[in-house]
Amino acid sequence: MGGPFVHNTSELLALLCAAGVGACAFRWRTANRRDFLLAFCIFLIGTLIRELVVYVYGIASWPADALTWSGFGRLFQIIGGALFVRASLKHACGEWGWLLVFAVAALLAGLI
Q1: Where are the domains of the chain?
Q2: b/e map of 81-106 (b: 16 or more CB within 10 Å)?
Q3: For a disulfide at 44, which of 8, 20, 30, 71, Cβ 3.0-4.6 Å?
Q4: Quick one: pLDDT band at residue 4, thresholds 50, 70, 90?
Q5: Quick check: 39 and 87 in contact, CB under 8 A?
Q6: What's the chain's average pLDDT?
Q7: How many angstroms separate the CA atoms of 24 and 38, rounded?
Q8: 3-class secondary structure for the chain?
């Protein structure tokens, strides 16, 4: 599919996420909006973790370790997404936007 080092889409996505994290680190000092860059980097790290789980354990019948790492990666994705929404609402809503993000996330997760 992509040469001798790439065997599936999961590997390609993991490599793309690793490149994105490297780009975030490279741009950190000169970034205008570090809040957006941090949110995106955290989301990419979560996606990288999840894709590494797929690469190492395969697509089906994951052991408990794989589920734990996958959940950890998903948590990073959720945190990155929440931080991105907070950065988007920061100037328009202040800290109320941050509280709104948590309330909506809890509502969607079925916690409320």
Answers
A1: 9-109
A2: bbbbbbbebeeeeeeebbeebeeeee
A3: 20
A4: low
A5: yes
A6: 84
A7: 8
A8: CCCCCCCCHHHHHHHHHHHHHHHHHHHHHHCCCHHHHHHHHHHHHHHHHHHHHHHHHCCCCCCHHHHHHHHHHHHHHHHHHHHHHHHHHHHHHCHHHHHHHHHHHHHHHCCC
- Rounded-to-10 torsion of CA 63, 69, 72, 76: -130
d(CA 107, CA 2): 41
End-to-end CA distance of the chain: 45
Write the pLDDT tens digit of every residue in 44-69: 999 999 999 988 888 788 899 999 99
